[in-house]
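Sequence decides. Consider this:

===
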Amino acid sequence: MKFLFSLFLLTFFSFMPAFSQITELKPGAASRNEQSEAGIQFFHGSWEEVLQESNTKNKPIFIDVFTSWCGPCKKMARDVFTQPNVGDFFNEYFINYKIDAEKGEGPEIASKYGVRAYPTMLLLSPQKQEVLHTIVGGRSPEQLIDEARKGINNTEILADYEKQFDSGNREIAFLQKYLKELSVTGKTNDKTEAVTKAFISGLSKSDYQNPDNLKLLFNMATDIESPAIKAIQSNRKAFNKAFTAERVSTTLQRAAFKAVDKAIQAKDPKQMETITALLKKESGKEGKRYVMLANLKFYKGVEDWNSYLKIAQKNLTSNETDAVVLNDAAWQVYLHSDDPKLIDKAIAWVEQSIAIKSGYHNNDTYAALLFKTGRLAEALVAAEKAIALAKLEKKSSKSTQELVNKIVAQRKSATTN
């Protein structure tokens, strides 16, 4: 069965290794903030003190409402809040606060804002504490940032800055503020590129020693065509020193992989040349594998199955350790190839996938491939196992049951003849 390979890619690049982030308590910063190597810094204090901090700094409040028994809450705290890119965003734009819904002030606050499930994350306005946005349930790091952007309304500010920019304002201090507001939206357009270019062109060599300038450009490096990417590449030592070489490479990798979607929309294989070149340069030992993943996503997106299968056949080896990648490639062989040798290789892939992590999807793929090769008895066993796993995983197995019906019908026909 087809597995959500695109979801894997999103998760894979959202959870790329978290690298240490240098965080220091600046003079005048709230001493109650929880300092950590990376990730969100949560304010420690009473609810009243949080509200005062929000008013003083004119920042909205991000509240993580959790309980001690909530599994997804623990996963968010362990795997998402600790990510450097999540910390960068939330520490810049919010006062962050944790509330146990069953202890202290928690029950009253949770009741006030109608919290009924966990985790629930609230974004509150700085003055009136009105709910700007509510997030219920777990999210990946990138999904959480995208959701949080919905709680920041900077439309009026951007309109004013755009007017100033169009009137010729090119002061570095102004461009810094403009870029900071643009970075909140997470969207890139012609105006973003123009402002970024203007900012970079106004920077002297010594300006690349300014942490605020480096952080601003680093946050803007989300698109492979962004001038910020070129600025990072041209001043790599300064960025490596500020953020670590590994973290800079990870940011460039994310930008490259994000560009695959644009290449798919344009149906342009030439765009993949720039993407894969950057991935090779920035990914070290994983370079070949990252290039394979990017190419598989592209050719799947444009439905060029011959190219997809060639790449899978050439690059997937016994060293591949991701069950999802192996299963998806095997499923595409089932759908798009009648080559006996390739089908045998796909069976080996899905067997490898099952050995790594057995689940409904890869057992279903295994059954389908066995059926395609005429190994009906084995196919029936695999299909029945897939159906049993689907029940455990609470997934629909309708297509697998249809496969079982086909297998039974063919065996019956063979017996009759």
